[in-house]
Amino acid sequence: MISLKKISRIIFFLSFGVFLGCSSGLPISTGAKYPIEVLYDNQPLERPYSEIGMVEISNEDTLSAKQTQNKRMMFRGNDASTKELLTARLVLKAQKIGADAIIHVKYQYYASVKSEGYMLSGLAVRYRGE
User: Fold this and answer.
1) Domains of the chain, first to last
2) Which of 44, 77, 79, 124 is a Cys-bridge partner for 52, taking CB atoms 3.0 to 4.6 Å apart?
3) How far, CA to CA in Å, does 124 sit from each of 47, 118, 129?
4) pTM over 0.90
């Protein structure tokens, strides 16, 4: 016979799974304004442009003791405000090569047993006719 405690755990994990299935995780952006236009992977640029080239920033760090308490990963990834700072770094990199916008911006996060990392990339473009 299954105990009430086990049933409660099963319901919790099923609910949590449904919640995760319905969400797409933390957003890349909370709507911050940058000196150039930043369009994420699913947003089209509706102006004529010329491609300059890909811009990318990435980093890998060792997991902290706080993240791996009791030999379990307690939390992972970057929060929305950290993603805003990373996007600002990507914008600066694009501005240095003369970009008016970055399109197809993608954020990727990965973790292993001992480390975590991220990569933020996009296509730097210059508007035509301006």
Assistant:
1) 27-127 (3.30.110.70)
2) 124
3) 14, 19, 17
4) no
